[in-house]
Amino acid sequence: MDKKNIDTIIELSNELRWQIGDDFHDNLTEGIYADAANIVKDSVQTEKGKKRFRLDSKIDKIVTSKTFGFPIMFLILGIVLWLTIIGANYPSSMLANLFLDTIHPALKSFATSVDMPWWLDGFLIDGVYLAVAWVIAVMLPPMAIFFPMFTLLEDFGYLPRVAFNLDNLFKKSGAHGKQALTMSMGFGCNAAGVVATRIIDSPRERLIAIITNNFSLCNGRWPTQILIATIFIGAVVPSSFSSIAALVSVIGIAVLGMGFMFLTSWALSKTVLKGEVSTFNLELPPYRPPRFWKTLYTSLIDRTLIVLWRAIVFAAPAGAVIWLISNIHIGDVSVAVWLIDSFDGFGFLLGLNGVILLAYIVAIPANEIVIPTILMLTVLVAGVSGGEGAGVMFELDSMDATGDILRAGGWTLLTAINLMLFSLLHNPCSTTIYTIYKETKSAKWTAVASIMPVILGFIVTFLVAQVWRIF
Amino acid sequence: MKTKVVKSACDTCAHFNAEGLKKLGINTDNFDFVVALAGNPNTGKSTVFNALTGLRQHTGNWPGKTVTRAEGGFEYNEQKYKLVDLPGTYSLLSTSTDEEVARDFLLFGKPEVTVIVADANRLERNLNLVLQILEITDKAVLCLNLMDEAKRNNITIDQRTLAKDLGIPVVATSARYKEGIPELIQTITEVANGSIVCKPHRIKNVPPNIEKAVKTLSAEIEKEFPGISNSRWIAFRLLEGDTQIIEALKSGELV
């Protein structure tokens, strides 16, 4: 290949470009559309009844209307969460019964019968096994209900309508309207939400979407919210209203997260990430009746089990770590107690405690294991009877028992509220942090995305604690 | 002519060799052919991809869901096909990231066959992309998807006329229900092996002065690269002043 000839071709193209004038692009596009129209005229026949299209636009008129758009959105979110809260309770206690009350003692007696050394028995059965069992009992039922319902909505075609409704708010906060879609993905998993930001072309707006995705409560955090809200918020109202109160508070946290998303997007776009909001086309696809059983099957297999597997993979070593720090002693106290004591002061300032802060450090790999870790550590320092010794995750077949342990650990309504807030506002899990790094290829922005939410969490919980203690 | 949607194809299609089909999932080693899957957003590309490979790439009813290039494979009559699911785009003429990913793959990945998935309900709008792709590659199959919806909307498509006008085979599918997939596989393999020869449609309705400029330029390109199939498309891009294509031309990546 001759380089000179290539240059001649390029020169020729420059010359011709001058000759044909600057509406070349428009002319070409028009040409394509004219061709398309000709082809369609000869081969496509549409009969009179365009009923389905009209039904689609009728539904759209309601679900994207100024009056009903937002209420319908919250109503749908409410129904999904309510069914999750109500439905997850029974299978959870059944699983806890099986894994913790039946299999665990069986494993223990087996260990005794084969003369397993106490440390191996403790490390494997009380550490690794219990952590995994706990994660399955707590995480599987809500996920198995939440994910299929979310997928059904997705298949039906509701997500683009959510994006349409939220577009104006995103525009006002200087962000891209498609961020509504990445935000929705974040409600499933923040790492997936961060990857989904590739649909945003402008690097500035994409960065905003990446940094703020963590404000979407992910599936690792929904169960935490639901559990704590049911135990503590549900308890302050008459029992007939308790699930409604829990539901409203969880929705409140999710909406607060969206509020922080808008606020942070706005702050970023006014300061370090200044720029114009870019326009885009969003196609509202036709509503498609989901294939119910197929969706149910694939969302169970592909989403629920994969996410559960990830939680298990991270829970096993975390369980080992918890058992180790509870059983390795420095002087008179175990490493865990020593750490908890040193975090306690700071925790008190935030209306939390040392246990919660330590749990959030242990649980950096996966949000799913926060509650199991908190329970185990609480048992350890509060010395609640019934536990199986240092570093053994507790057996809980009911939410009441969980609540009793937490109250014995000194928890109040403030602790619960601030835990819910801190669960919303803290660093992303390590998978998400790594994904952010892969997508931005910038240590600086990865650090911003990881640290900014924790600082916000400290500020918000601190303020809430101070105001709470005044009254 | 009425649109025909074949139900479970194996029992109705005489040519399809069901025993010769193996879905390979993500195993794409030692493939014989590369097949690209292109099309507008939300036309069911990922569903077609899943139906062909047996994979369960996440699907959902919203445009722009596939952001990465998913790869999978299938084997048919002892030939291995690697399938690449490209992000959905409305056009290849602008420079957004997803359009670049799709365009670069069609251009530099040199797929042996490009399956263009189109929504049968919105064919005219989908043809914008189809016609652009046909300028880049001359081995393509139009997969007319969502035929079940088209039927409900009382839309009938004369596939034979359409195939004649576009110069490429047209296969009607409802990928969600796995309808038409065996025919699609059969057609892909025939195009890949050269038993179907495409004579793709070229964009016609351009003003004479532009057509003349394109002809002059593409003649020069063909002189430099004999046998090149998309000289017209390169000429379009050069006239548009596309710096990426100019660079690719200089570095020799285009041929």
What does this structure look like?
The complex is a heterodimer of chains A (471) and B (255). Chain A has 471 residues and is an all-alpha fold. Chain A is built from 19 helices and three strands. In chain A, a hairpin with a 2-residue loop joins β2 (329-330) and β3 (333-334). In chain A, α4 (69-113) runs antiparallel to α5. The longest helix of chain A is centred in the N-terminal third of the chain and has 45 residues, at 69-113. Chain B has 255 residues and is an alpha/beta fold. In chain B, strands 1-3-4-2-5-6-8 form a seven-stranded mixed sheet, with helices on both faces. In chain B, α8 (208-224) packs across α9. The relative contact order of chain B is 0.15. The interface between A and B is large, with 67 and 67 residues. β1 (44-46) of chain A pairs antiparallel with β7 (155-157) of chain B.
- Proportion of residues in extended strands of chain A: under 5%
Based on helices, strands and strand pairing, what is the structural class of chain B? alpha/beta
What summary fits the major beta sheet of chain A?
2 strands, antiparallel
Tell me about the largest β-sheet of chain B: 7 strands, mixed
User: How far apart, in Å, are the first and last alpha carbons of chain A?
Assistant: 82 Å
Low-confidence blocks of residues of chain A: 385-391
Low-pLDDT stretches of chain B are 1-12
Q: Helix share of residues of chain A? A: over 70%
The radius of gyration of chain A is 27 Å
What's the rounded overall pLDDT mean of chain B?
84
Determine Rg of chain B (CA atoms, Å).
Answer: 18 Å
Category by helix and strand content of chain A: mainly alpha
Task: Look at the structure and give the mean pLDDT of chain A.
Answer: 84
Q: How are the strands of the biggest sheet of chain B laid out side by side?
A: 1-3-4-2-5-6-8
Q: What proportion strand of chain B?
A: 15-25%
Q: Roughly what percent helix of chain B?
A: 25-40%
The most extensive interface between chains reads: A-B, 67 and 67 residues
The shape of chain A is elongated
Terminal CA distance of chain B reads 41 Å
Count the DSSP helices of chain A.
19
Reading the helices and strands of chain B in chain order gives HEEHEEHEHEHEHEHHHH
